Structures are given as C-alpha cells and as structure tokens.
C-alpha cells in the first residue's frame, strides 16, 4: 500500500475478524471464498470424539453425537489441513412430533411438504454454519463477520453462511499489569470448553477461535496447544488466527511485516514471537496498551490509521505487510479507506480462518 510518495508496496492485513471470512473488502470476498473451498476427500468420515471430560454434559454430548452423522472431510487449499465437515442435515431434519403438521388442532391429512425421509438445511445457514467463540467483552468480531457476510450476498458470495456465537465468560477484563493478563488468560482458557459446549447445541459444522491467543500466550507452541486440546474435546475443526495470518501473508508473498495491536510491550513481544515462529520477520510494532479488554473496541480509527501511516508503513521499514492483531479491535473501516491509495488489497479475509468455508 503506498501511503506516502516513494514508499514501497505494502499490504495491511486485518486481524481476528478480518481473517475469518475470505476476501478483501466488499466484493473481493468472492475470491477468498474461491481460494478456500477445499476439495472433498471422503464421505462418511467423522471427526474425532470428544474427551471423556465432556461426559458430564449429557445433553451436549447427545447433540454432538447427532452433529457427527455422516459428513465429509476436505483439504483446505490454503492451510493444507484436513477439515471435518459434519452432516447436520441428515434426515429426519426437522423431526416432527406426532401427528405431524396440525391444522386447527387436528392432523393436516395430506398436507405433506416436510418428508421424514429428507434432510432439510437450516434456512439461514444452508451453506455453512459456523460456531464463533469470543470473550464476553468482545463487541467487534461478530459484528465484523456479519457485516462481511451481508455485504457479499451475490453470486459466488456468502449467502447461506451463518454464525452462532458463544461467549467465554471473562468477568475480570483488566489488562493493566502482568498479573491482570495472567488472570485474563486463566478466565479465557478455563471457560473455553463451556463456551464450546454452548456453541455445539446449534450443531455448527466448523468453529472459529475468536481470540488473539498470542496476547496471553508466549510462543507459537503455546498458542497451538489449547487449540489442539479444544479440537479434541469438541470433535470439530477450529479456524485460528495464526493459521489464517500465515496463509494470507504467504499468499501475498510477505516476509517483512509490521504489527498493529491493542497490546502492551510484553503482548507485542509475544505476538512478534508467534509471527517469527511462523516464518515472518517483525520489523516494527505498535501497541495501544489497552488496560481493559472491553476498551479495545473503543480505540478510534483515526489512531489506527495514523499508526499505520506514520509509524509502521514508513520508508525505512520496507514492509511487505501490516498485520492487525486483537480480537476486539476492528480495522475494516481503516483498511477500506487505505486500500484505494495502494496497489494491493488491504486485508485478506481467510475464509473461516482455516479455509473451511463453502465451496
């Protein structure tokens, strides 16, 4: 993105929500969906079963069992990962209680219309149903994802893609000190299973991790560990920010990056280690040092734009891309303003963060 005369080509990649649904802004989402469809490799393959720890959730386990009837496995075109897509429309769907459709209190004889041998899709989420897990203080990510979906309803777009959101309860969102961040980490990781259980009641086909784990965990290995654990627990594939960022940056050929975050110095150091673990050089970073997770949503767009233009995308940094981290920090409006002055799209929305979106 050329933000000043003579500045080399750069790209601004949005963070959490920006990485969640394929494409740049508005119409470019179509290309993201096209890039991330994956190819089917099997029918009737099932995700792994949940761990025995979930046995106490009898209702949830029953729902998850239904969720795994049939299905298929695809290989993500960007991530190369196996992604299990359960068949949530297996008949009878919907199941009707006897005597079936009633009219004026009596069985509607001969009405038909809903055959028990058919599996009908969710009327709103007939192409893909995502489960989104976010901290309870996050007011940005779901909004951004729905805005991307609703702005891209045309041919080849995202009509029929839906979200079901579950919150991780984080009653102490202070981030002023290292002790605060440790407590926030304990709250989020400790509440992740319960949120996944709640989301599973809607029978999602794919989960999105709506949290910048690099804020609370110190390395790429530490970031990957709870994701692997929750995938094993839930039996569903999870799209993650670190996988999405790697795929997007690789697609654009970016190596030297700047990062824009709501984190403090230590949080930025953790984020830099994660990106370095992914094979990128973090040349420069800007963090707004938000003292409360809720307040991240209140960082003004003008400050984000100035940070990109005046501190990150400057001549001496020779950046290939600027990456925004932070689940609750929206960057859609900023990138849409900056894209027209550059020669590359401002953000690459990695469909469902790990290319498990509709074909």
In helices, the fraction of residues equals 25-40%
Number of strands: 13
Poorly predicted runs of 5 or more residues? 1-10, 22-59, 343-354
Helix/strand class: alpha/beta
Strand order of the largest sheet: 1-13-11-12
Any key phrases for this structure?
alpha/beta, four-stranded parallel beta sheet, 9 helices, 359 residues, disordered N terminus, 13 strands
Textual characterization of the structure:
The chain has 359 residues and is an alpha/beta fold. Helices cover 30% and strands 16% of the residues. The protein has nine helices and 13 strands. It has helices spanning 29-35, 58-67, 141-150, 178-200, 220-234, 241-251, 265-277, 301-312, 332-338, and strands at 12-13, 39-43, 72-75, 82-85, 102-103, 106-107, 128-135, 161-168, 206-209, 238-239, 256-261, 281-287, 321-324. The strands form four sheets. A four-stranded parallel sheet has the order 1-13-11-12, sandwiched between helices. The protein has a four-stranded parallel sheet with strand order 8-7-9-10. Strands 2-3-4 form a three-stranded antiparallel sheet, with no helix packed on it. A hairpin with a 2-residue loop joins strand 5 and strand 6 (106-107). Helix 4 runs parallel beside helix 5 and helix 8 packs across helix 9. The protein is elongated.
Task: Characterize this entry briefly.
By secondary structure, this protein is of the alpha/beta class. 30% of the residues lie in helices and 16% in strands.
How are the SSEs ordered, and which strands pair?
Blueprint: E1 12-13, H1 29-35, E2 39-43, H2 58-67, E3 72-75, E4 82-85, E5 102-103, E6 106-107, E7 128-135, H3 141-150, E8 161-168, H4 178-200, E9 206-209, H5 220-234, E10 238-239, H6 241-251, E11 256-261, H7 265-277, E12 281-287, H8 301-312, E13 321-324, H9 332-338
Parallel strand pairs: 1-13, 7-8, 7-9, 9-10, 11-12, 11-13
Antiparallel strand pairs: 2-3, 3-4, 5-6
């Amino acid at each position: 993105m050329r933000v000043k005369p003579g500045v080399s080509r750069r790209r601004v990649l949005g963070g959490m929500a920006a990485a969640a649904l394929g494409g740049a802004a508005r119409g470019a989402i179509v290309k993201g969906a096209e890039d991330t469809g994956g190819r089917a490799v099997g029918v009737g393959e099932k995700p792994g079963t949940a761990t025995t720890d979930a046995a106490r959730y009898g209702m949830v386990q029953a729902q998850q069992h239904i969720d795994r009837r049939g299905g298929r496995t695809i290989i993500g075109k960007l991530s190369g990962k196996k992604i299990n897509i359960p068949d949530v429309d297996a008949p009878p769907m919907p199941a009707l209680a006897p005597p079936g459709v009633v009219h004026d209190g009596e069985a509607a004889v001969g009405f038909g219309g809903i055959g028990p041998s058919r599996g009908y899709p969710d009327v709103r989420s007939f192409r893909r149903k995502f489960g989104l897990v976010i901290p309870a203080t996050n007011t940005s990510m779901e909004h951004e994802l729905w805005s991307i979906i609703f702005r891209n309803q045309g041919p080849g777009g995202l009509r029929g893609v839906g979200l079901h959101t579950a919150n991780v309860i984080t009653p102490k969102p202070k981030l002023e000190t290292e002790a605060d961040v440790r407590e926030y980490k304990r709250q989020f990781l400790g509440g992740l299973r319960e949120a996944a259980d709640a989301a599973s009641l809607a029978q999602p086909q794919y989960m999105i991790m709506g949290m910048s784990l690099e804020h609370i965990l110190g390395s790429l290995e530490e970031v990957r560990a709870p994701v692997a654990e929750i995938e094993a627990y839930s039996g569903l594939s999870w799209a993650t920010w670190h996988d999405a960022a790697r795929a997007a940056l690789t697609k654009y050929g970016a190596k030297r990056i700047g990062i824009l975050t709501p984190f403090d110095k230590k949080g930025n150091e953790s984020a830099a280690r994660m990106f370095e673990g992914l094979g990128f050089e973090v040349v420069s970073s800007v963090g707004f040092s938000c003292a409360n997770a809720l307040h991240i949503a209140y960082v003004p767009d003008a400050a984000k734009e100035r940070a990109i233009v005046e501190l990150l995308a400057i001549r001496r940094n020779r950046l290939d891309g600027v990456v925004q981290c932070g689940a609750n920090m929206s960057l859609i409006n900023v990138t849409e303003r900056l894209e027209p002055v550059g020669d590359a799209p401002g953000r690459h929305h990695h469909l469902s963060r790990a290319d498990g979106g509709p074909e």
